[in-house]
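Throughout this review, each integer encodes one residue's backbone shape. One record appears below.

===
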Amino acid sequence: MKIKLLKKIVAMTRFGFYGFILQCICVSLLIADDGLAQQKSVFEIYLSVQIEEGKLVDAFKLIEYKTGFNFSYNDAIIEENRYVSLNMPYKSLGDVLGELSKNTNLKFRRVNQNIHVSTKEFFQQSVVEEIEPVQNLIKGKVTSSENGEPLPGVSILVRGTSIGTTTDLYGNYSLTVDNNAVLQFSFIGYKTQEIQIDNQSTIDIVLEQDLEQLEEIVVVGYGTTKKSDLTGSVSSVKPKDIRDLAMPSLDQAIQGRAAGVFVSRTSGAPGAGAEIFIRGVGSIQGTDPLWIIDGVRTSPGTNFNMNDVASIEILKDASAAAIYGSAAANGVIIVTTKRGEKGEPKLSFNSYAGVSSALGLPEPLNTEQYAEIKNEAYDLAGDPRIPAYADPNNLPPVSTDWLDVLYGNGSIQSYDLSVSGGNEKSNFFISGSYFREEGTHVDSDFERYSVRANSDFNLGERFKIGESILLSHSIRDPVNAANRDWIRATPALPVFDPANRFGGFGTVDRLEYQYEGGNPLASELRTDEINKDYRINGNIYLEAKIIKGLSFRTNLGANLNFGNDRTFVNTYLGGGGVLRNTASLTQEYDENIRILGNALLTYDKEIEKHRFKVVAGYEAIRTDINRYSASGANFSGNLQVLDGADPDSRDATGREFSDRIVSQFGRIDYSYNDKYLFTVNIRRDGSSLFGENERYGVFPSASVGWRLVNEDFMLQLPFI
């Protein structure tokens, strides 16, 4: 009997143990699933809600039960909106909250697992959310691969952000970051490493030495130098840092890539440019830096293919940029394009595509809400109501969301094909690219074609010639900047009206609706504006080695830019009877030609512990700008050309501008024992825009450097 009882106890204990293990597993899975849900958007969480004239509080409790969220609200708000009806089978939580907002005029703000309820103000979104990612405290130590010693001052950044820290004197660090972040470890003289966190709490890093880094050659004004010999402030942007960016222009691509350089896109329209500030504003004439592309002064604009870039150097302080004179007041960006390399021909193809959508758009009123506000305003003012909205039970059947009409999904696509190669005597690089961006706003897009050809030829041992040519063509259909009708457009206005012979756009009776605005879609589509740009950038050069250490280089460059803008405004009737029965056409032609030539001597010499490099040069720049504009109206038949306009309506204007600049410049770089560095620059500019007595200006600069790491007493420190 005792033995049987003992066996039963053992069996019960075994089953109890198995049940306990199974329960732990289930609980663990439940917790993991809940943690995952915390990261989902309210539009990714689905549920079914069916309530018929139920209390709003009960609706909140039902949603809390099905989703795990908690509602937070003021009882006074809920009393005003006590009953609701919902019939939403398997809809997202965001859609459910949006429907509740329409019925109750409430706003829902999701913060992690809480949903805060408040009264919705005019033009506010119904549902907003703020999801705070899971934060982890990461600790670790950074050491050198050479001797295992700790490395103080190592820069640790979260990739793609400005969040980071540095190691202390003992190589230790700690940083609180998102669980899916990637850490970048970088230190002068060592190779940069990237580490994915992946739920780790301790990450120890061993950095490998990069002896080539300090010997890296960077491009400076009218020459090159070793990175270790720089005394001015120069930042380098590597092609690998920007090649994967879906950006239409080079100026936008350098955003966040260099300290002290702030880039802001001027608008979200396709093909829009960007403003660049290098260490703030340096001139009252604007903020744009001076761009030098393959030795030619020209802005890349939106005509430049980023896959052609070989290197980008940004000269940020006066010492580095003074050799370019007054034009460098806002800094200098030097771009060098790719050249061919010795070896078999290489074929490369790059492509990407993507979609875009407008974010943060306000939520406009529907016709019922619009009528309610209008009636309330007129009642408070003691004025008679607007006839179209006076009876809430007999409102216009139309309710147009004009933002939904004007905005949709945009797209972007890019294709680039290049071939390069070379041998001991010559090399070549040829590329072609196509880029297109469809805007999120209706009737807006940008398209670009470009072809580049670079080549170099060695003529014996002393001479070398080469050229760089860029041909580009862009077409831009911009947003009508004057179109602001959607701000005050009534939702009772239909989008289209087939009976309207002036464009077929929707209209309303001006007196009945007391609306004198336009039809927002008509205001955009009636204006057909196309901006075409044709650009030729190129230069040829000749290099000669005179004697050992002494070389001569002459460069001739040209920047030819031709613009052709056409704006046709058609006849139309829309909105509150806004009638335009006369079409008009404006055509503008812009011709901008810049020719540049320079010649410079470079002498590079090293005598025992002394090393110096001297550059002296002369430069001349000629700029001619011509602009013409012609317009006309009252066209015959369907003609949309100026010859078809009424002769009395035709008008034409034009203007010219020219500038001549001659300059002399020089630079001396001196180094003693690879420890003490000295650089002096000077430039003398003369411009035809100034009077004879004020025509010339001199721009000097000087800087010194001390390579402390090469001192004997520093070599004794263990972490050097």
